[in-house]
Amino acid sequence: MNTLLEVKDLNVSFQGNENENKTGNKSENKNETVTAVSCLSISIREKETLALVGETGCGKSVVAHAIMRLLPPESIVKGTIEFKGKNLLKLSEKEMAKLRGKEISIIFQNPSLALNPVYSIGHQLAEPLRIHTQKMRWKEKEGKKEKVKQKEKREKKKENSNLSKVSRALKRVGFSNPREYMGYYPSWCSGGMNQRFLIAASTMLDPVLLIADEPSKGLDRDRVSELENELKGLKEKSETSLLLISHDLGFVRRLADRVAVMYAGEIVEIADPSSLFESPLHPYTRGLLNSLPERGFVPIPGASPPLSNPPAGCRFHPRCPIKEKRCTQERPELKESNGRAVRCFLCP
Amino acid sequence: MSLKAENLSKTYGSGLLGKGKCIFRDVSFELEPGQTCGLMGPSGEGKSTLGRIIAGLESPTAGTIHFKDSPLSGMKKAEYATFRRRVQMMFQDPTDAFNPRKRIEHSISEVLKLLDTPGTERIRRTKEMLKTIGLPEEVLARYPAQLSGGQLQRLALGRILLLEPEYIVLDEPTSALDVSVQAQILHLLKKVQAEQGIGYLLISHDEAVVRFMSGKMGMLENGKLKVFE
Amino acid sequence: MMQEEAYIGENTTQESKIRKSTIQESIIQESTIQENTRQWNDFRSLNLDLDIRKYGKNLKRFNRGGLFLFTFFLILALIPALFAPYSPTERFIPYEAPSTAHLLGTNDIGNDILSELVYGARISMMVGFASACISTLIGLMIGLLSGYFRGTLDELLMGFTDVVLIIPKIPLIIILGAFLRPSIWILILVLGLLSWESIARIVRSKTLQIREAGYVKSARCMGFSPFHIMVSDIFPNLVHVLLPKFMLATASAMISEASLSFLGLGDISMKSWGIMLSFAFSRGGFIREMWWWYLPPGVCITLCVMSIALIGFGFEGREKEKRGVDAE
Q1: Is the pLDDT of residue A156 over 80?
Q2: CATH number for the domain including B104?
Q3: Residue C328 lies in a domain
Q4: Is the predicted pLDDT of residue C174 greater than 60, yes or no?
Q5: Is B183 within 8 Å of B157 (Cβ atoms)?
Q6: In terms of domains, do C159 and C232 share one?
Q7: Sequence-distant (≥ 6) Cβ neighbours of residue C159 within 8 angstroms
Q8: Do B148 and A298 touch (CB under 8 A)?
Q9: Which chain B residue lies closest to C234 (C-alpha atoms)?
């Protein structure tokens, strides 16, 4: 399998106050830099589901936004994000706009906020099609000699085909009567339905990479399992790779092919879900798993460090039960061995 | 010494036109100090409404709440004031638990002022409270937006504890938090209960949380409450 | 873009060599249409697509200008003696054209117009601010009460608001002015008492929203009195909505004052800019084309109102930037 997306040494930092809603660690000092993501390297292969797991404020959403290039202009992004051999960070805004939605698309956290309440579902879902096919038209001019009238006809056909594409996409996410739902408005539908509309919208153009940013947040139990089935179906039916960002460990376990655990802006462990959940290596992962309900809510002592001022050495050492002297001084590297990677001195 | 709810019903939107929507009917249960009662059920079934009614924030359409054997509706002003202090509620979203325009210090000392605590005593009690909830004193000088969800939820609990409550209605206290923070808060809640003998009504959609916390469990479904031990 | 253009050009020439002339024509036609569309798109993206960020910056610059102008007028109003060359009641030769002695000439009774203008700032601004204070206060109280307590009180107060809302303001003041002795205080009172409805409505809707926030709910739970909750929890979160509204109310009160004064319903003993305009009109300023008489007060009113409105917009914009949402 080929590598689709390769993120290498990604560093994202924000200056001053701009990040307050992003990391929740707003500092009083305005000139302080907050490094939301430091030295992050991940790769996603074709048709693979990679999950990014971590607590609130550990910078996982920042990674998604960095890949989509949706970060505020004040942020400083270093490193490379290679998508199909192109460095996304070097693309112009226009080229990026062509990629967004077509090749890479994203499902945002809040389904009812991501849809515009004044347009019908069908209209909104057809919008990305309209935009992206319009752009294509300049290119497909090659040696074509149709008359202007024919062009108009084609446009009408295109509009129709757009709508049928929308209805097909809706059918795929489990709406038996898509034509009816296309006339609906977001406020008529439940959160779970809106979530499915969004999934339909983001998968309609058959993106190669789909980023799901906390898709299960704020949804009920039932809705979460519905969503899970949706994403599972998507994985089976299409060729899409999925970058799943979540703090819901159970959800991740059932969906992911590989799991990357993030702590305080770093990846601390990458492994496949079964080995990660059964024999976690990094002490943070172990702590995280122990605080799950099925393991009796054993909490990790202390709190995550502020990203504006991470501790020296291993970032987890103030909360680590097995720390040694060198953990407080040196920073461990991500070590790879038989398919797993851990950022800890004490783990093999 | 208990908090008792008898035949509570709640109907929304009942007026001259139409009958309105019945949320639940004839719900009765009893809460003892030092005991946790879990309340579960799918969302939109009125768990939170029931919690708010028990905490006295809303009035039921029918039925009564008895606090220490006297009904809430017939209470005198002084009696109601003690009820108001002894029965507290903790909410789901810690990020809006504190006034965003005031420092934590202000929000905390306001509560102590309400209790007519003198100045030096106020500082002592604040420090004591911070020790109980396990937060450093620096947090006092911060604004709510500068603290994490877990810290804010601890402070929300701490602020309630200053009032020395006998019962706390916990409305989804951990569902907005991360798993590791959730574990911390649940342990803190247990610790506080063991120390001060507070009765909890725990509203949650997460069965594991309810099982971990409580002996008694109730299920609110289709407007009826089913209780099982 | 350039590449694409060249490519299409090449394409057409190649095609034209092979194909018949009719098709050739249509291709050229099509490509020109394309060309035009693309040019239009380029033009649009360069000139018409409003970049929000750029727009915000411009707005900020405007606000600074507004603040500067406003401070200038405020200083004029607070210490007029510093700027006015003469006392506004001192008499010189009437109907004089601008000169070094009288920069803006003199009026019909020989008062120095520049001095009158400077002293008029205080009266115009006082009317604006005093009536805005009254209306904001009333609006705040009614909005808070009806938003916090809801129910019957809410319906009564909002019904009352609706009644006040449909009273035509200017005609009422004209009638009142005809019956009562024209006085600046009556003007302030009437303007203040009749323009609080929009503030009340906004405060109410915002209060309804804030009262459901966790901190208000827990304050109610902890037994704080409604008054305490309104003052210390709800009010601080309303300030950012109230400030711009207050500024806009000031501006609109100033305009109302000017128009009423112009209609001759102002207080002649306290010469505001509006009254100056009125005098310029009735005492022959317009007929004699003495622009230095009627233009400056008009310009002053416009600039002052604009500066206040700009500051109001500035508050709103800053709030939007800070919270990422609409201030209302």
Answers
A1: no
A2: 3.40.50.300
A3: no
A4: yes
A5: no
A6: yes
A7: none
A8: no
A9: B99
Verify whether the Cβ–Cβ distance B178 to A247 is below 8 Å. Answer: yes
Looking at the structure, do residues C93 and C224 belong to the same domain, yes or no?
yes
Phi, psi of A261, rounded to the nearest 5 degrees: -100, 130
Contact A38, A11 (CB under 8 A): yes
CA atoms within 13 A on the CB side of A40: 31
What residues of chain B lie within 8 A of the CB of A249, using their CB? 179
Give the Å distances, CA to CA, from B60 to B18, B22, B26, B76. 19, 11, 11, 19
Tokens, residue C305: 């109102």
Contact A222/B at CB under 8 A: yes
**Per-residue pLDDT tens over the stretch B71-108:** 887 788 888 888 888 999 998 888 888 998 889 999 99
Residue with tokens 């700009």: C310
Whether A13 and A75 have beta carbons less than 8 Å apart is answered as: yes
Neighbours of C309 (CB within 10 A): 17
Host H or E run for residue B37 = strand B36-40
Q: What is the pLDDT of residue A149?
A: 63
* pLDDT level of residue B228 (50, 70, 90 thresholds): confident
Supply the pTM of this predicted model. 0.76
Q: Tell me the H-state helices in A49-120.
A: 60-68, 93-99, 111-114
- Domain span at residue C45 reads 2-49
> In the 8-state DSSP scheme, what is residue C247?
H
- Residues of chain A contacting residue B148, judged by C-beta atoms under 8 Å apart: 24-25, 56-57, 303-304
DSSP tally for chain B: helices H, then strands E: 7, 10
Are the beta carbons of B84 and C237 separated by less than 8 Å?
Answer: no
Beta-sheet pairing, A33-45 with A3-15: antiparallel
Contact B182 A303 (CB under 8 A): no
Interhelix angle C21-43/A148-172, nearest 10 degrees: 60
Sign of CA dihedral B62, B67, B71, B72: negative
Q: What end-to-end distance do the CA atoms of chain C give, in Å?
A: 43
Compute the distance between CA of residue B128 and CA of residue A109 in angstroms, rounded to an integer: 39
Read off the tokens for C198. 């929009």
Chain A residue at shortest CA distance from B134:
A302
Q: CA of C43 to nearest chain A CA: how many angstroms apart?
A: 15
Which of B47, B138, B178 has the most A C-beta neighbours within 10 Å, making it the best mutation to test the interface with A?
B178
- Tell me if the domain spanning A3-91+210-215+242-342 has CATH number 3.40.190.10: no
What domain range is B109 assigned to?
A: 3-228
Cβ–Cβ below 8 Å for C11 and A21: no
Higher pLDDT, A172 or B170: B170
Q: What is the pLDDT of residue C154?
A: 92
**Nearest neighbour of A145 by CB, restricted to C8, C27, C34:** C27
What is the phi/psi pair of residue C173, to 5°?
-65, -35
Q: Are A58 and A303 in contact (CB under 8 A)?
A: no
Quick one: which of A94, B41, A73 has its CA closest to C1? A94
Residue C301 burial (CB count, 10 A): 23
Q: Which of A220, A294, A298 sits opposite B205 (nearest CB)?
A: A220
Q: Is the ipTM of this complex over 0.90?
A: no
Domain count, chain C: 2
**A61 touches B at CB < 8 Å:** no
Contacts of B91 in chain C (CB under 8 A): 214, 217-218
Residue with tokens 């059964």: A278
Three-state DSSP at C328 gives coil
Of B55, B94, B96, which is closest to C213 when you measure between CB atoms? B96
Return the number of CB contacts < 8 Å for B and C.
57
Is A321 an 8 Å CB contact of chain B?
no
Taking the CA atoms of residue C24, residue C29, residue C31 and residue C36 in that order, the dihedral angle to the nearest 10 degrees is: 160
Cβ A69 vs Cβ A88: under 8 Å: yes
Classify residue C65: in a domain, yes or no.
yes
pLDDT reading at C206 higher than 80 = yes
